[in-house]
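ok so dumb question maybe but i'm new to this and my supervisor (M.) told me to 'just get the structure for UDP-N-acetylglucosamine 1-carboxyvinyltransferase' and walked off. so i did the thing. is this what she meant?? sequence i used:
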Amino acid sequence: MEQYIIRGGNPLVGEVEIGGAKNAALAILAAAIMTDETVRIDNLPDVRDINVLLEAIERIGATVERVDRHTVTINGATIGDISVDYEYIKKIRASYYLLGALLGKYKKAEVPLPGGCNIGSRPIDQHLKGFRALGASVDILHGAIVARANELTGNHIFLDMVSVGATINIMMAASMAKGRTIIENAAREPHVVDVANFLNSMGANIKGAGTDVIRIKGVDKLHASDYSIVPDMIEAGTYMMAAAATKGDILLKNVIPKHLEATTAKLEEIGCEVEEFDDTIRVIASRRLRRTHVKTLPYPGFPTDMQPQMAVVLALAEGTSIVTESIFENRFKYADELARMGADVKVEGNTAIIDGVDRLTGARVSAPDLRAGAALVIAGLAADGITTVDDIMYIQRGYEDFEGKLRGLGADIDRVFSEKEIQKFKLRIG
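this is what came out, is it supposed to look like this??
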């Protein structure tokens, strides 16, 4: 079983290069099958979720070629199957983007109900509502979503709740529907904008992405494109939190500072120095940080995907902080693991009350999901002594070469596969 083993106590110092946004890339890869011409996508993160989705796309018949670690070409002309295998869906929730892509292009799709991290209920009713509004019949049959239409017709769709997945899925299907579609109460996240930009680069006609009203004029077909994925604001935010927790000094390269405003504002509020440049950000934490209150909200609010990492920083801050999770109900599963390291965290419903402690101590902990796993690694880096993190396959779903990038910042961290390797690590660090 793979684990991370960490000796904490070193401030993280240096430069780190941020990769492409996983959440944008997953939707863009799905959208790439909507043309019969070859699409080239670069700045792809080399993470497990991306590789699983590429396998799923290949399995339905598309031609997929890895040009290099971060570049792929996809041609959807050879697709012979509109039914996606359950094996892929159970591994990554974002395979459901193939619904909107296949429905838009072929007017039919069959995709099993999604899996992914168990961080709470993530219903797909808004996706299905959108497909039905475009004229598709949608049924749940034998554990799969089956959507069909003679043709898709544009419509006015008001989402009952802000949903990134539904916004993107409806946007993909509507881009090849007859007439005009308006999506109101649309998600505004940077990766929604990136997917819209990608579809437009293939000949779609989408306006308003990044606002809460998106207007789409359907087109008959899409064409080839050469596109680069936007930088990952969650990967960037995770390293910003690592600097804060370890009293470090990190320069993050290849970022869009505007995407990080909510994270930057909170770090400055608790006492970090944050310097912004065109495509870099520097985070310096030279003293003990202060308490604050955090509430997760849809973009441009504080991201739910940054909440566990922020909680680790606040576990070491002075005073009592309150973290309110308004997006997912199971996002505090890391609290018990953090308590094993000496943190004082009490969870009541969708709120965590965190009394800052002077120090954390190393322990054996288990990653309950992707972002919580990254947060526990940060806790290990800040803690006294040795921490082992189990179930790191969750972390590998969304962070490319996590241990390598952290080592480049001065962290004592290894990925190990056996008890023998753990002992070697302990002997090496003395």
